[in-house]
């Protein structure tokens, strides 16, 4: 990975290509990010950069976090994310990253927090099939018996078992999306298709890990 930027999801719309084809896009507002820290194999054991995004008042920062910004000599930001790199980063502390680091036609991955949907059963959460809906059925939307698994698993439910629970609100990544348009004046990046998260949520756009 060589480049990435943080931004805010504004929502979806559609645009027309020069050929007249309509394309559904998600609009991301990517105001300039700042490089807060650069890590290398020699100093930290691995290569990465730490980028920051968003405005925040200093009174809302803890002393350790404020000290990190003071050491870097940059204005405090609300969000910090680290981006691993294979080679030594060609970035410097204090450098700004704008929307123009991407261009139309680039392939990217988008990382965000999926919409929270509250407590959900196995049918909605995992796509289970329901049981018979007749009056004689004792199991309509229940997940089924756990007896054999519990008795053979030490008397407890094994971690990762598909059961009812909180749905959404997790980190989600969509791979191999295409950048349709970049508006450098308004700091907007238009990405083909949908991306994780609600309107106004934080997302990271990075070079795709699957270029082909």
TrEMBL record:
SUPFAM superfamilies: Translation proteins (SSF50447). This is Large ribosomal subunit protein uL3. One of its GO terms (molecular function) is structural constituent of ribosome. Keywords: Ribonucleoprotein, Ribosomal protein, RNA-binding, rRNA-binding. InterPro entries: Ribosomal_uL3, Ribosomal_uL3_bac/org-type, Ribosomal_uL3_CS, Transl_B-barrel_sf. Residues 126-153 are annotated as: Disordered. One of the primary rRNA binding proteins, it binds directly near the 3'-end of the 23S rRNA, where it nucleates assembly of the 50S subunit. The keyword NAD does not apply. The gene is rplC.
